[in-house]
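Friendly challenge for the regulars: who can give me the structure tokens for this chain first? No prize, just bragging rights.
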Amino acid sequence: MKIEERIEAAIHCEEPDRVPICPRIWRLLLNLPGYKCQCWKHQLKAGIEFGYDPLIFYPSARVDNIRNPYATFTDSDYHLRVKLRITQFQDFDMIVREMKTPAGVLTEKRRQLKPGKRYGFTPDSVETVDEHLIKGTGDLEKIPFILPKPEKAVNLHDFYEAMETVSGKGIMMITDYMDYSLAYACGMRELMIKYLRERKFVYELVTILQEHALETLRLYLEAGAKHIFTSGFAWGVGAGWSPKMFSEIFAPLIKERTALLKSYGAVHHYYDDGTVMPILKQLEDCGIQVLSTLAPPPFADNSLAKAKKEVGNEMCLWGNIDLWNVIRNGTPELITTTARKAIEDAGYSGGYILGSSDGLTEDTPNANLMAFIAAGKKYGGY
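First reply, four minutes later:
Bragging rights claimed.
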């Protein structure tokens, strides 16, 4: 089978010639010779070079004006006055951003950690936010002015080139990280407090971001996109929301997205690198067709075997192999044993893509990556 056919079969819970193999490799690309970035071209190149089945991440917008403190707002229809003040300290730089919109001023403060002062095991852990952009109801009317205009943020010329190039060699997913924008705009702690004290604010904020996301995704769907990837970790139970909260606030948003995608015949991929077992049935009811990353303990409380038994062939499962204790720090033997068990637990009757529990770190040994891919090819046949 062609790579694209193999992945499509698994996504639709049919048996391909073997289980597709797709580690989340884009972070590792930054440290590999000949790879300078994480663009779709380099993701495709890596799939060919290392011999796996690439699901390629293609960002829905080139710049996130909420998450990126250095955004220039060239994709906006409005004249915004932005002031950026950076004060250097020993361990971090304090970045203060002020944006004057037609509806008023937004301000935020971030601490950007210096090299060697980071926490966690990924380069994502490089900053904390002392003051978030959106602090209350009065700031909601300012948000539309800072969001990128979809027609300006979407590069359809590049999208068409990517679709043509990737065809047959992998699958390209348009990625939307609205949950990141939500977390950065208000802050997780503040958002949960407002859910308890000022629930109307939370609904209004997520509605503004959802409408903008759907407007952007619709441009890609009109242009022929067939795979949409929704990030949902920031509104999952692993982030602190209860299943009841998830059902009230976020499940309706996901259902709305799924309905839009189905109207265009597109597949809905859903990402949550935390615990998903308590909301697995809800995700199935939302119409999710591919679920990742099903991280195992100690990162999250997910069981691949139980998830497969619960969803059967109603949802394709992607991931589960511990990126840190197995792929990065494990022996080739441990990697092989773990991959084989995952295939046995979820690969029967189709509907499983062998993958990592999240993005592989930059210092993952090449030998371990190759052992992971080899294990999938050895034990993934049908």
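The CA atoms of residues 340 and 379 lie 6 Å apart. Residues 3-60+154-379 form a domain with the TIM Barrel fold (CATH 3.20.20.210). Your move, everyone else.
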